[in-house]
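A student in our group prepared the protein record below, which I am reviewing. I have pasted the whole thing underneath without changing anything:
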Amino acid sequence: MKIGIVCPYSWDVPGGVQFHIRDLAEHLIALGHQVSVLAPADDETPLPPYVVSAGRAVPVPYNGSVARLNFGFLSAARVRRWLHDGTFDVIHIHEPASPSLGLLSCWAAQGPIVATFHTSNPRSRAMIAAYPILQPALEKISARIAVSEYARRTLVEHLGGDAVVIPNGVDVDFFARAEPKAEWQGGTIGFIGRIDEPRKGLPVLMKALPRILAERPGTRLLVAGRGDEEEAVESLPAEMREQVVFLGMVSDEDKARLLRSVDVYVAPNTGGESFGIILVEAMSAGAPVLASDLDAFAQVLDQGGAGELFANEDANALADSAVRLLGDAGRREELRERGSKHVRRFDWSTVGADILSVYETVTTGAAAVATDERSGLRARFGLARD
């Protein structure tokens, strides 16, 4: 099958949607499909052979974060050229309602279109206001996927229609077989995310850290991600700052090793999450997970069965749970076992098969429509069947 995938966000700035598209493309290629991904990217940026640049993206505030999007005449021209050259059996557009390549592709594409909705934003006035503009494009979509029940709810409330829920995928074995790193072991808490994005929750964790360190003095916090490191620790007493180790941006391999090494992985995110891919990665690596009780996180963690939850934005509750987990090796081992079993439902072997089933459904439907149209023309002009 020839599959075209549209990424709305800049390929050279890592994020959950980009990782999902990358892993999906590579999974499909490994199965023998022909895949091309169109994504915003600087033309000078080295790209995988299956990625085509649609030009540089610009930063736009979006859903409590900063999304790097691509929109305009040049982008539209590149979209049309990519669609023309690709002759795809199916186009898979991610975030078709965002003002980026997804919407441009939805306008320009012909044939079967599958759309995946990642956003969870229950009070988006902008999306409601934009609906009359979006409607003609969205009506061309053959099948809709939402990565979680909360992304599906956002779609239903703002744009109408419905979607099948297929979660983000993870290569579970990649994380499970990673080798722990000795210097990251021994009384360590892990955090991965953009340091200077408040909704990722690092300020909440920093507020909880003094209590954690007071009761578990040897604990270290390992932070992976980009942002202002000095600003991140400025609320901590000076004598505690050396207990925070900043690792900067890490490779996929080092992310897996970090998650395999820590005693507890903490996800203190405060909102705007529709899924929680980092929780799945942490469980895959066998890390006991402690996360804020966002609806999306609770769903990923089986309502607390595969990881512990604390009250969102409550630093005291976070500290209480972290101290208890750090002091209870038995409970941590229980969470490892439960998480490792639960996470198998998110492996690409399952998620990829579900997405392929959607592709096959829309392409089969399109073929049936085309056959009906040809039959109608034959009957109209008295032509014989093939």
